Amino acid sequence: MDRVKHGALGDDRRAETPTSAPRRAPHAQAKGSGLPPRTGQYRPGSAPAPRVAKVRTGEDRYRPGGRRTSAEPLRASWQPKVEEEERPTRARKHNPGKISSLKKTFGWRAYAIPVLIVITVLIAFNTARTPAAPVGNDSPVSAASAETGGGSIDGASGILPENPAQPVDLRIPTAELPDGSPFTQAGKGTWHVMPGKGDKVGKGKLFTYTVEVEDGIDPSSYAGDDSFALAVQGTLSDTRSWTWDGQFALQRVDASFPNPSFRVSLTSPDTTHRADMCGYQIKEEASCYRRSEGRVLINLSRWVRGAKAFGADMTAYRQYAINHEVGHALGGTHVGCPVDGGPAPVMMQQSFGVADNYVAMLNNVPGGDAGKVNADGKVCRPNSWPDTSGS
Length: 391
Fold this sequence. Notes:
By secondary structure, this protein is of the alpha/beta class. Strand 2 (about 205-215), helix 7 and strand 3 form a beta-alpha-beta unit. Helices cover about 30% and strands about 10% of the residues. Strands 1, 2, 3, 4, 5 and 6 form a 6-stranded mixed sheet that branches. It has helices spanning about 5-15, 25-35, 50-55, 80-95, 100-105, 110-130, 225-235, 270-275, 300-305, 315-330, 355-365; strands spanning about 190-195, 205-215, 250, 260-265, 290, 295-300. It has 11 helices and 6 strands. The relative contact order is 0.10.
């Protein structure tokens, strides 16, 4: 429908309204007034205004007979306002920024990535500033090779001592138990006799002995019962042990022997500390001989860890511990260092140290062996044997 016909239809509708004034025909107007003929051109009036508002709201724009104003766009849109509001949003989606792009791609990980980068940088910085840990005194070292004769001990026992390898200053306190391998703190307080016996060694007065291990202690810490038994028998059979001067003879016996002279017993620390065993007057780990029990108690903690005065030489310390405590069973008592710089007597308390001043101080407590060692300033060298002629 063209504009002329559209306008004519509009005039016909207005003619039907009772209140509308009669209009002249188009040709009559052209002939009588000298004006150009009507072509149906729209002339502004009061009526089109409401229709413009209705068209803008989309209510009746395309109703038959409706009229479009010159201000209306040619493109139809059912929601022009919503469209204008959404246009900037669509534009932003087509041109996202870097942060929005990361968020869209990685989600919450976009926030985690920079945090992880910062943490990594801080760890690297702290690691670079932290000095390397020094090789401490706890580093295991190889066991000292056995150099003794007559069935020497520990050569292939597989026990790795944990004592410091560097020389120890023997003038300072050395009684503290060294760091090292774990051991059983408390056994059952009963012992089992190890099978095996040996020939008589020496020409003097005969002393018989059994080798025993406390029940309930972990054998892995001391390389097993057989290892301990061989260590005891090998030490006491050595010509530098108590048979060296012809005063004593020693012989290992087994459980079938009716009444051995003494028992050499590997014992847990808690059992050793009992008042009916070694007691605990000096608050350092030690072994002892309990005459009323006829038992030499070798403290498991010392057997595993040794003593600071002996450094890393676990074989030498174990030989000393056996000889020292068996010396008590043979009637020996504690002594001090006789010659400054010389070998320590085997009856010196070398588990605590080889400096007279320090050992005398430890003994000067109730229940200690006070007066046996003079605080004379002498310092000896560690020694494992009763016979010191070759030292």
